[in-house]
Amino acid sequence: MATDEKTSKEQNGSISSVLTEKRKFPPLAEFSKNAHISSMEEYEKLYAAAAADPDKYWGDLAEKFHWFKKWDTVLEWNAPYAKWFSGGKTNICYNAVDVHANSWRKNKAAIIWEGEEGHQRVITYGELHRQVSKFANVLKIAGIRPGDRVAIYMGMVPELIIAVLACARVGAVHNVIFAGFSAHAISERVNDSRAKMVICADGTRRRGSSINLKNIVDEAIITTPSVRSVIVLKVTGETVHMHDGMDHWWHDLMGLAMDECDPAELEAEHPLFVLYTSGSTGKPKGILHTTAGYMVHAANSFKYVFDIKDEDIYFCTADVGWITGHTYMAYGPLLNGATILMYEGAPNYPQWDRFWDIINRHKVTILYTAPTAIRAFIRAGNEWVTKHNLNSLRLLGTVGEPINPEAWMWYHRVVGQERCPIVDTWWQTETGGIMVSPLPGATPTKPGTATRPLPGIMVDVVRKNGEPCEANEGGYLVIKKPWPSMLRTIYGDNERYEKTYWSEFKEMYFTGDGARKDEDGYIWIMGRVDDVVNVSGHRLGTSEVESALVSYEAVAEAAVVSRPDDIKGNALVAFVTLKDEYVGDMNLREALRNHVAKEIGPIAKPDEIRWAKGLPKTRSGKIMRRLLRELATSNEVKGDVTTLEDFGVLENLRDQEDD
Ligand code: PRX
After folding, report:
1. Ligand 1, residues 401, 408, 446: which to mutate, most atoms within 8 A of Cβ?
2. pLDDT by residue (tens digit) across 595-617?
3. Is residue 547 part of a domain?
C-alpha cells in the first residue's frame, strides 16, 4: 500500500493527521480535450481572477440568467450577513424550466424516472413546464403566498421535483422532509418553520414493500397548528384517510388547474428553502437558502464539476430530502438544461446490480453517489458490476463523507474502468453547493481528497487561533470569504447562526470539519470535530439521538458516540444509564432502538447499546465523550483521564455480551 503513517502531535491547537496517500491520477487527454476547463493552468487563472475581483467573477456568472430586473450590487456584506445581487429580481423556477421549455430543449428529457418495480416515465422540459405551472396554480388557489412555508414529504417520484419547483415559482419556501423521518421529526420541522401546507404521497415503495406516508403525516399534524391543508399524491394506492376540508388529492386539484402561471418576480434575497440538518445540540437547524445566490452557484458548480454537456444522462443517487438532492438532483441540472435520471428505490432491489443495470439500460454518462454506497457495492462483490456494460460512463462523483482510498480505487477500477475521472466533492447543507472538488478535465486526483476549492471559494485550514496551518498540519476547515450559495441564517434563530458558524474564528465561517492541506494545496477532510457524526453520508447530531433515548421511560441518562464502520462510515454506540427500577436486557435494547427510529427515523438507530451504571464525567459534570469514543472503538482507554471524576465507571463500560 502506498500510504505511510504520520505522527504529528497535537500542537498549536492543530489536529494530528495519520494518512498520506501517494497515488496521483492526471485526467486523460481524451477527457480534457472536450472539457469545459481543460488544464490546471486554466483553473489557476480562473481562481486567481476570482480571488482578485470576486464581485466581477460572480457578477459575470449571474449575467447568464434571466432577470426581471438587474441587480444594483453584487455583494453587501455585513458580517456575518450577506445580501447577494441586491436590487435584482428573478425566479429560479423560470431559469430552470421556462428558459429551456422556450428553447430547442422543449422536447428534451428533463427527467427520466425509473420506479422500483421497473416503471418508466420521461418528462420533457415542455411537459415539466406544464406540470409545474399547473401545480403552482394549485398552490395559489390553496392560498399559498410568497414567503409562506410548504413542507414536502414524499418518496423519489418526479412530483417531488414538480412540487419543489412550483413552490419556487410562486415564491413559497419549500421545506423538504426526507421520507425516512418519523412523525415526531416531521412535526418538529413543520412547527419550527410554521408551514402552512404539507404535500405528501399516500406511500412510498422501498425494497418491494411500501410505507404509508400519509398515516405518518396524519400523526404528525395533530401537533402542528400552522398546517391548513394537506395535498396527497397517489403513488402506491395505500388505504389512506382523507379528512374533509383538510386533505385533497393531488390529481383532483391538478385536474382543475390551468397550465399557465406567470412566475413571481422575486427579490434576489427572497427565501427559497429551509432544509433541516443536525447540529451539536438537540434541535435540528433550519438552514435557510435564498434565491439568486443559490441559483448562480448551483448552476455554475454543476456545469464545471460535472462538465455537463447536452448529450449527458446524469444519474444522482441522492434523495431530494437531502441537500445533494436539492442542488444536484433538481436545481443544478435543470438550470443547465440537463437530463436527470431519477431512480425511486434501493440500490439492492431486486438485486445488488440495480444501479449498474440502470446505467447500462439508460446509457448513463455521469454517476454521482456516496462512499457508503460504494463500500456496500464492494462488499456485495464485483460480479454485480462487471456483468453490465458500463461503457457509457464518462465521469464519476462522490459526496457526503470522506472516501477511503481503497474505496476510491475500487470505484476507479471496477466502475470507471480506469477511464473516468472521479470528482470527490466536499460541501455541506450550509454551503448550498460544492466548495472543494476536482475539475474533471483539469485536476490530477489523489484517492481520498476533494482536492482544491472551486474558483471564487476561499477555503483554508487554520489552527485554533485562526492562523493558517502549515502544509500537512491538521487543523480546522474554514471559509474566509462569503459565497453566493451560503446559508443566510438558521431559520428564526440568528443567534444560533452567529454562534455555530461565526464565533469560533474571527470573520471566518467554521465548517465543523477537521482537515489538512497537503503540499499541493489539496484538502483532506478528517471528519467532524463537533458532536455531529456522519452515518451513511447523513449528518446526525449525537445529542438528538441522546434526547430521543432519554425520552424513553426507562432511561435516566445517555451518551452517544461513533466508532468507525466498514460500510456506514460510522456506527452509533449509545451508553445508557437506566433508572433504578429497570434492568437492561435484550428486549429493552430492541425497544430503545425502535424508540429512536420512531422519534427520529431508522437512520438514527444506535448500532450498539451498552448499559452504563454511570457515565464518565469531569468534575464539572461534563460527559467525557472522548473516553467513550475510545471505548467504543477499541474497548480500552489510553487517553488522558486526569480530569475524570470517578475511575470506577470506565470498568463497567467495556464490551457487553447480550444479556
Ligand atoms: O463532514 C463533511 C461531510 O459531510 C458534512 C456535510 O454534511 P451535510 O450537510 O449532510 O451534506 C452532505 C452532502 C453535501 C461535511 O461537513 N462531507 C461531505 N462531503 C464530503 C464530506 N467529507 C469528506 N469528503 C467529502 N467529499
Report:
1. 401
2. 999 988 998 999 999 999 888 88
3. yes
